[in-house]
């Protein structure tokens, strides 16, 4: 009996020691630097839930507030795509190490321009239901080919997208905002979009980007499709993916606002992309 007790004690002790050693020897994922860039008619708030989850997994997360968005009061008519590019370039220059640069919608144009200027700083470019241009294209060039986008439509004879060239802004017909951007969202999420809505600077939509194989072409790219998107249609998403020869593609069954509809699913995808 004593021998049996001794054997059990030795086995239990060895098990505890092995378990302790295993935990000590576990390789923890290296923290990544995520930089998140919002799109048109948006502000940093859209990334709040995704940011929280990424940080909880040990990552570093920086959310960019574009000029003329959120709390920034830059006059819209003074802004260009380069204004946005330079804001992101300044942000990533203050981060130690390479970054995973994520752009949503209009943000895809911006991160492309950033990669052209500073490719060595970027580990990966991630396009989230984003415009992905080839050299010489503007957002407007791509949008005009998108027959499946609700932004090009009209309701009862009134255009959904309203231009005000006098002050250089674009607006979305107010009663169509949630239907276009977040038709599958909760009432709370839809109200958040309405409460934070601001007119969008017009000029950056018309500015083309110049991209080279040596710079932009040297950075790894990932695309996350949104299958219920009414802003950047799935058809256009597929066309841009093919034109840019992107090899890694994921998808979320959401509207244009996946970060508000399925933030956990998006954060899981971004974590996977960062590994």
TrEMBL record:
Q: Does the keyword Signal apply?
A: yes
- Is the Transmembrane keyword given for this protein? no
Domain AB hydrolase-1, by residue range, is: 35-264
Q: Name one Pfam family in it.
A: Abhydrolase_6
The taxonomic lineage of its organism, from the top, reads: Bacteria, Pseudomonadati, Bacteroidota, Sphingobacteriia, Sphingobacteriales
List GO molecular-function terms, semicolon-separated. methyl indole-3-acetate esterase activity; methyl jasmonate esterase activity
Signal peptide residues are: 1-23
**Which Gene3D superfamilies does its entry note?**
alpha/beta hydrolase
Its recorded name reads Alpha/beta fold hydrolase
Keywords annotated in UniProt:
Hydrolase, Signal
Q: Which SUPFAM superfamilies match?
A: alpha/beta-Hydrolases
- Species source reads Mucilaginibacter rubeus
